[in-house]
Write a structure and sequence with these properties.
Elements lengths: L11 E3 L7 E4 L3 E5 L4 H17 L7 E5 L4 E5 L6 H7 L3 H16 L5 E3 L5 E3 L5 H8 L1 H9 L7 H16 L7 E3 L8 E4 L2 E4 L6 E3 L3 H7 L8 H15 L4 H28 L10 H12 L6 H9 L7
Antiparallel strand pairs: 1-2, 2-3, 3-5, 4-5, 6-7, 8-11, 9-10
Length: 315
């Protein structure tokens, strides 16, 4: 199919996500349009999907592309995602066990090099300290200024920035694996009794606890602490880390840093992009943060900070 802006209106527009992409359904395919952040949303998306497919992980294959016109055409995996399936399931843990099988495969990937559809070399970049902290700082840059319940003073932001920096320094695991970076049930399609992974353009090499934190402490679906604990146990029983306490430490820290980032992103979406539907998820993000801070002394400074500034948290 030749993709042009002229024929775009012929296709059914699908509900979008938090990115700058737009999605349209053709006969048996999905058109992805992205004029902003085009390289990540089109070129990198295709390249990462190639890595996944090569490792027998179901992901959207490229059908055609018109990069000059800001389009790619990819496989269509239908409308049902794992969020819907889990919500309707009476055996939620069994559904999560199926998802963990995907995560096992992802973390065993060894070759991270490929070519994008423009025949340029592609390799996953590292999820560096600078990247992780920059994302966490979205909380400082967007949520704090938007929260009019607190008095904005320079020292408040500076103090919280130092706390966030120290949390990162307390991560223990050094070896790196493929990290999807947004590994939650809304990014998994249930198609022909299989799970297909989408939205993978931001994949990196990083901490093996990150994607698990994305899955278990997912702000989009409320699960019991029992389910959360059991998913973690199932994962650890498979990988048998020599030092489980280090893994759990990193899991908790990355979950908190990720949810601070998410609160910042949702605030930015509301204030900058006028996508206010995500604001309703912020109270649950705070609950997830509170839950992970309970039994880890590395969070003492953050706990004390939030106690001293209780109006920061939206309940």
């Amino acid at each position: 199919m030749i993709l042009t802006l002229m024929n775009l209106k012929k296709f059914k527009k699908l509900s979008g996500d938090a990115s700058f992409r737009q999605f349209y359904r053709a006969n048996n395919s999905v058109l992805v349009y992205s004029k902003i952040q085009k390289r990540s949303n089109l070129l990198n998306y295709d390249a990462v999907n190639k890595i996944l497919i090569k490792n027998k992980i179901l992901a959207p294959g490229l059908i055609s592309q018109n990069y000059k016109k800001n389009f790619i055409e990819i496989e269509d995996f239908g409308n049902k995602n794992m969020l819907d399936k889990i919500k309707s399931s009476k055996t939620k843990l069994n559904e999560y066990k199926k998802i963990l099988k995907i995560l096992y495969k992802i973390q065993k990937i060894k070759n991270f090099k490929t070519q994008n559809f423009l025949k340029k070399k592609f390799n996953l970049s590292n999820y560096s300290k600078a990247k992780i902290l920059k994302e966490s700082y979205l909380f400082l840059d967007w949520y704090l200024p938007a929260n009019k319940l607190i008095i904005q003073k320079g020292y408040l932001k500076k103090k919280l920035k130092k706390i966030i920096d120290n949390l990162y320094l307390n991560l223990k695991i050094k070896h790196k694996v493929f990290v999807h970076r947004d590994f939650h049930v809304s990014n998994m399609m249930f198609y022909k009794n299989k799970i297909a992974l989408i939205d993978s353009q931001d994949a990196v090499l990083g901490n093996p606890a990150y994607d698990l934190a994305s899955l278990i402490d997912d702000v989009r679906i409320k699960t019991s602490n029992s389910i959360k604990s059991n998913i973690l146990k199932v994962f650890l029983s498979k990988f048998k880390y020599k030092n489980e306490s280090q893994f759990i430490n990193d899991f908790e820290i990355l979950s908190v840093l990720r949810n601070l980032k998410i609160i910042g992103i949702f605030t930015r979406l509301a204030n900058r992009d006028k996508k206010k539907k995500y604001l309703k998820l912020i109270p649950y993000a705070w609950k997830l943060i509170d839950n992970r801070m309970k039994n880890n002394s590395n969070f003492n400074d953050l706990i004390n900070f939030l106690k001293e500034n209780p109006k920061i948290k939206i309940k």
